[in-house]
Amino acid sequence: MKLAVVSDSHWRTVADGRELVGNLLTGPFATADAVLHAGDLVTPDAALLFAPLPLYAVAGNCDSGSDLPTRRLLRFGRWRIGLVHGWGPPAGLEQRVLQVFADQTIDVLVFGHSHVPLCRRIGSLLLLNPGSLTAGRGAMRRSAALLYLGDQDVRAEVIDIDACQQIV
Q: What pLDDT does 12 receive?
């Protein structure tokens, strides 16, 4: 199974993201089975851009008034994925999001907020921040991620959207 992973789109209107998402859906996300969005959609209608793929999203700090949950525990086959946006300053972000799921067993933790891509393991846990679809906040480039859920392993890659190449 292949999941497209995004965060921090910050689109004020659907039109703001239409071209980018169209390019992703015909490019690196073409064979994705679903999309995970780690928050800060800003406009709730942004979810419509990813159709017909199922979208699993959480609210971020810029999603005021959203009825999205602040965290989700998702299951795809044998794999359990924690999905949360994150909050606060960059220092300590990983520790804060890890605490959200401290009482549950997860295989992957997807988060956003920092706009900085990250893909690394802590023991058997894969920690994945896809960065930001729109850069900003000090991010050097627009990025997203692909999460591959195999029979025996899980892996991810962060891609530079503009260059269409793996960066992490």
A: 87
| CATH code for the domain of 152 | 3.60.21.10
- The answer to whether the CB of 86 falls within 8 A of the CB of 112 is yes
The terminus-to-terminus CA distance of the chain in angstroms comes to: 20
Number of domains in the chain: 1
**Percentage of the chain surpassing pLDDT 90?**
82
The 3-state DSSP class for residue 3 equals strand
Sort strands 79-84 and 71-76 into parallel, antiparallel or unpaired: antiparallel
**Total-model pTM:** 0.94
127 CB-near residues (< 8 Å, 6+ apart): 94, 98, 108, 109, 111, 118, 119, 120, 121
Query: Residue 111's domain spans which residues?
Result: 2-166
pLDDT per residue as tens digits for the range 135-168: 766 566 899 999 999 999 999 999 999 886 555 5
Contact criterion met (CB below 8 Å) for 135 and 155: no
Taking a C-beta distance cutoff of 8 angstroms, is the pair 144, 28 a contact? Answer: yes
